[in-house]
Amino acid sequence: MLASSAFARCLHGAGGRPAGQDKGAGNDDREFPGKGNGVVNKPETPETPEESNSDEKTNSGRHVGHKFKFDKEPRGAAGFLDDMDAQSPGKLQRIIAKSKWQGGKDELAKELEHDTDLGIDLDNEALLYQCESLASAAPTIAEAAGLEILSGVLPGDIDPASVQAFALSSRPSATRKVYLDFIGGSVTNTAWNVKYPNINIPAFSVDGDLSTFSTVDNGAIYAIWRAVSEDYAAFDVDITTIRPASFEGVHRIMIGGAGEWYSANPVGGVSYTGGFGNSYYNPGFVFAVNLGRNYPKYVWEAVSHELGHGLGLAHDTTNAGAYFEGQGDWAPIMGYSYLKAVTTFDKGEYTGATNMQDDFAVISNTLPLLPQDNNNMAAATPLTVAAATVPGSVTGTAYGIISQPDVPEFFSFTATAAGPATFSVAVVSPYGGSARSNLDVQLAVFDATGASLGALNPAGVDAIDGLGIANARLTLPAAGTYYVALTGAGAGDVKATGYSSYGSRGQFGLTVTIPTPMPSPSPSPSPSPAPAALPLARASIAMSKSCKSGQCTCSATVTVTASRSVSNLAIGGSWTTPSGTQIQTATISSRGQALFTASRQSTRTSCTFTLTTPPAGYAWDPASMMTGTLTNL
Asked: Region entry Disordered: which residue ranges (predicted)?
């Protein structure tokens, strides 16, 4: 396991300005020679690493920017480290201390042998990574299908069509800053320049136009910023695209180009590990052209990965290789995370893990973890209740961040009447079919005595509500005070098919529709005549299911017959599952059928569908089949 002041070169397998802003504009003259001219000058032809570097193969000399190998050393990494101790007393100890390596020399030797992408920068006395597995597998775009939230962007908001891409800040009040630099420019006076004196990074560009940032570029920048902000939402850090007045103490990730100055082979990203905020070991680089040709999903995964190295994180590895590719819908950020919908930090809980690094513990050595003060009923935060807009209910809301595993955030509300309450929890909205939320949210409701009224975690990652909860209904038995507890949940088997609650942390928005007394009806001056009897519609229910990867979807096909056509009329029903109750409506087709589908749930459970609302102008025939059940899915 690796921590600070090491170097990572990750071959992940794209960066942006407001429309009309010149790429390369707004930079100081020393670092950005193209300032003000509206065009980023192409960098000079980079120094190309030699194809066969004798130093690299014999483990002597400098290894800046090259893999560290032991091909010619019969005693392997352990022998090399022993020789370093003998020939340069104190050097290895300085490297270990500077890198905040979490083990001793023996552990370092084992990791050097196991992870062929880990090496040593002898000039700068730092550990380094070369993540060669990542860039080569990346497809092109055509192939790739409250109080705590201070950014001004609420979790359920979709990305706007037009954005100010260079005015984004996830936590403006935080003193620790991560600057996502999509503008580009030159790099001088850093550890990188020991080997590469002329480094020029082009601006990020999806459309290939390096002169201005288009609407497409700005949209991609916004998507990347929002995803990286969610990955680090549990920490007191500002992920920003606002260029700082000074880079002192700021961790900078430059995003753009293909990294030809660094390697003739495709490279996804490079970073000194543990160099967070250290101007000598900054910036880190993400070579977006090599990431599905600037595909936002791949770029944000690479940015969070490289930032993780800067904070001291090592690769999530297995016995089979240096990168764990995930399982089910999930992959770890510090592994190979491009192809999975849900990606989070982890602590090596999957089968075959060889890196048990506690990612959040390591990161919190540099970035403070946000507290969760409202973690019990006594400390619950009251919902903000809006004025009633319809009779019979009011709406309460709250926003926040789950920052710690299995620690609930409690909220309270007062219902002035018994009746159904509706609960929704929005998480960070997906982008292009990929989840950006790290939080798989679970909700529980309690009465004033602490008795549970039910728990909800109905949606899978492939459901329309992503990892959140939409319009789940629970009945409040009486007027009084109630409590809502939100926590991060896991899914599937952490050893083989899913993930635990450990990395399920992130932003949320809670909305509760609370029952209130209905106004009394006005008295009638005289009895009203009884309405004419409605014609009858008869219904039958056919139940079915489809299962995959330990999850099942229940379906109910309702066939409706009547004295005249009922096509295009709506009917209603409800699902009862271990996850809770779901109210649905469906339209009758020309064949007289309507389809209802429940959210995915685990096998070996049950689901029941109950028919409720008849077609408009009809009553249900008493002979109708009103309920269907599937058991032991």
From this structure: 1-69
Number of Cβ within a 10 Å radius of residue 212 = 19
Structure tokens belonging to residue 103: 């083990």
The sign of the dihedral angle between the CA atoms of 409, 362, 468, 218 is positive
Q: What is the pLDDT of residues 208-219, one digit of tens each?
A: 888 899 999 999
| CA dist., res. 439 & res. 529, Å (int) | 56
Verdict on whether the full-model pTM lies above 0.85:
no
Instruction: Tell me the two tokens of residue 584.
Output: 């649905």
CB distance 586 to 571 below 8 Å: yes
Q: With beta carbons less than 8 A apart as the criterion, state whether 480 and 415 touch.
A: yes
* 333-343 exposure pattern, b = at least 16 Cβ within 10 A, e = fewer: bbbbbbbbbbb
210-to-219, 230, 231, 268, 293 alpha-carbon distances in Å: 16, 28, 29, 20, 14
Q: Express each pLDDT in 390-436 by its tens digit.
A: 788 999 999 999 999 999 999 999 999 999 999 999 999 888 777 88
Q: Which helix (DSSP H) or strand (DSSP E) does residue 455 occupy?
A: strand 452-456
Residues making up the chain, counted from first to last: 633
User: Quick check: 497 and 580 in contact, CB under 8 A?
Assistant: no
